[in-house]
Amino acid sequence: MREIVPAARTVLIDGVEEPHRLAVELPRWSIPPLTAGSRTVTEIPVRYDGPDLAEVAALWGVSPADVAAVHSAAEFRVAFCGFAPGFAYLTGLGEEFAVPRRATPRTAVPAGAVALAGTYTGVYPRSSPGGWQLIGTGDAVLWDPAREPAALLTPGARVRFVPCAKAGP
Questions:
Q1: Which residue blocks in the chain are alpha helix, DSSP H?
Q2: What is the pLDDT of residues 75-119, one digit of tens each?
Q3: How far apart are CA 117 and CA 119, in angstroms?
Q4: 64-73 and 53-60 helices cross at what angle (nearest 10)?
Q5: Which residue, among 157, 131, 136, has the nearest Cα to 57 in the 3D structure?
Q6: Higher confidence at residue 165 or residue 143?
Q7: Which residues on neighbouring strands pair with residue 41, listed in sequence order?
């Protein structure tokens, strides 16, 4: 195998020399439970000032301040990456906090926007179109080709969002 690329409901395994043998073996594999892994938690400062904060609060039946409190109290884990370089799909909010994507996506979401869709949280690494609910903004550099690794958030990483009046280092 050259590479394993996880996604929400699939896994791409690239470079398998005998795929038919792997297909026979896969049903016998068991998936071990996620362990604590790294003790390091990446903290991302965020201002809970997104344009959809009030809508998410209404969906959750709480105040906008409570959305910030619930979101920042959770510890997230990077499930997989995709959509754009540096974009991580973070799990950590329960099903009770799932929100739908916007009925009409925005043509431009600013870099640093903290967003929710379904049970995932994501942070837009650069300006791009998007249909997620925007609840905050931050200044973390999520993708830097000069950094090793280039992505700040990689699969399995632990993440916490830290509320602040002014995001930044």
A1: 19-25, 53-60, 64-73
A2: 999 988 888 889 999 999 999 999 999 999 999 999 999 999 999
A3: 6
A4: 80
A5: 136
A6: 143
A7: 158
